[in-house]
Amino acid sequence: MKTFRLKYSTRAVADLDRLAAFAIGVHTPDFARRYVAKLRNEVESLSYLADMLPKSKYRLPLLYHPEAKTLPVGNNRLTVIFHIDGETVFVDKILPSAMMTH
Amino acid sequence: MCTVSVNINENQLRSIDPMLTDHGAISRWVQQLVDSNMQRLMAERTSPIAYSTEQARSLVTDRLNRLENGQAETVGHDEVKREMDEEIAHMEAEERAYWAQSVERDLADMAEGKTAEYVSGDEFWSRFEQAAMKHYEDVPAEV
């Protein structure tokens, strides 16, 4: 099975505060840490899943890269937009899944 | 359907809302609270842009402040529910606007030929956790 290393776009980094507020129903600091860890595990599954996922059928991810693929995470509330180049998965953006409408 | 038993300090309740004078009125009041909360939770679960716990707590805090200030007598349950619905709709609109602008900024950068830079997973997730913890710290203390 092919494995990839992951890199994250600074475009996603710019949205981190909003993503954290959007994604996390915070009850305790431990909950917040566990949630982030769970989300990280889901996104990092791309290291072995990336190749198997199809090219996105939505228009928005393809604006970020012509070969963009997507992975829903966080109970489908967020969508990771990524592309593959060689041995690396580039995470281009993380958006609310509700934006993937057409 | 299920029936639950709850303990309520009737004197304290009546000092907040003098209309809650008998078992029937208190039962209806509790039922409305439950219905309202379930509706909120369902909205949170199914809404395309769900609002955060922090914002939901802010709604509850505002409502409690209103009760403590004695404004409850003039604000009916329907009005409170309508206000909450309006506030949720407002938050959802703000959320949509933020993400639409974020994508627009990205597309404008791309149109100008600016290429994306990338950081390592450790850096990204460390910053994500910091953002989450900051979000946690911003949440007001439990009411």
Report on the architecture of this protein.
The complex is a heterodimer of chains A (102) and B (143). Chain A has one domain: RelE-like (YaeB-like fold, 2-Layer Sandwich). The mean pLDDT of chain A is 87. Chain A has a four-stranded mixed β-sheet. Chain A starts with a strand and ends in a 6-residue tail after the last strand. Chain A has helices spanning 10-14, 16-23, 29-44, 46-49, 59-64; strands at 5-9, 69-73, 78-85, 88-96. Chain A contains five helices and four strands. Chain A is globular and about 40 Å long. With 102 residues, chain A is α+β, with helices and mostly antiparallel strands. Chain B has 143 residues and is mostly helical. In chain B, 70% of the residues lie in helices and 2% in strands. Chain B contains five helices and one strand, in the order H-H-H-H-E-H. The model of chain B is unreliable at 46-50 (pLDDT under 50). Chain A binds chain B through residues 6-22, 24-29, 32-33, 35-36, 39-40, 44, 60, 63-64, 77, 90-93, 95-96, 98-99, and chain B through 48-50, 52-54, 95, 98-100, 102-103, 106-107, 109-110, 116-121, 123-125, 127-129, 131-136, 139. Strand 1 (5-9) of chain A pairs antiparallel with strand 1 of chain B.
Furnish the topology, listing elements before pairings:
The complex is a heterodimer of chains A (102) and B (143).
Chain A: E1 5-9, H1 10-14, H2 16-23, H3 29-44, H4 46-49, H5 59-64, E2 69-73, E3 78-85, E4 88-96
Parallel strand pairs in A: 1-4
Antiparallel strand pairs in A: 2-3, 3-4
Chain B: H1 10-16, H2 23-46, H3 53-68, H4 77-111, E1 118-120, H5 121-138
Features:
heterodimer, A: 102 residues, alpha+beta, 5 helices, 38% helix, B: 143 residues, mainly alpha, 70% helix, 2% strand
